[in-house]
Amino acid sequence: MVTKDSQFTLVGLGELLWDLLPTGRQLGGAPANFAFHAQALGEEGKVVSCVGTDDLGHEAIDLLQQLELDSSYVAVDEELPVAAHLLQVSAEESEFLAEVANRYSLHLIAVTKGASGSRLFTSDYDGEQQPEPMEVVDTVGAGDSFAAAMTVGLLRGCDLDRIHRTANRLASYVCTQAGAMPVLPIELGFL
Question: How would CATH label the architecture of 93-180?
């Protein structure tokens, strides 16, 4: 839910889809998950996407509205292209991250490693976080929630240790829930 204290609008641009899980169908797609978690953390989240003209497309838009996410930028079309890209980090991770940061003038690189935790890397910060022990229900959306918490923390001017802890805790919590967009307890935000 957008609060009157929202300072930023964060846009999830890309696919909006249905994750077909053993427990049932869940609305997802990294951009939608990102916008949802940014909004759950108190900022305005918007989804910019396109869905099909079928019932599932219309149901996706309806669910966005139920989640109080702005769906006015979700187009409806008969044909949708699908693409996926994966990046694996090499064993010499520090050298690789420094080279990528330098080559592309990046201020921050985030590496999420699933059960092995996460890492934030800048020219003067290099921190790793391990997840708390938990019973994993579903990992869909964990990385998206991490990215949303990281972005919200950066925009709010929080220090990187606090951002990293919050992002890691949020991603861990998402793993204990079914689907990528669970209702978040208030203690998981930036207090």
Answer: 3-Layer(aba) Sandwich (3.40)
pLDDT digits (tens, 9 = 90+) for 96-113: 788 878 877 878 888 888
Strand partners, 45: 10
Q: Model pTM?
A: 0.64
**CATH fold label, 9-76:** UDP-N-acetylmuramoyl-L-alanine:D-glutamate ligase (3.40.1190)
C-alpha torsion 15→21→25→31, nearest 10: -20
pLDDT by residue (tens digit) across 37-63? 999 999 998 898 888 888 888 899 999
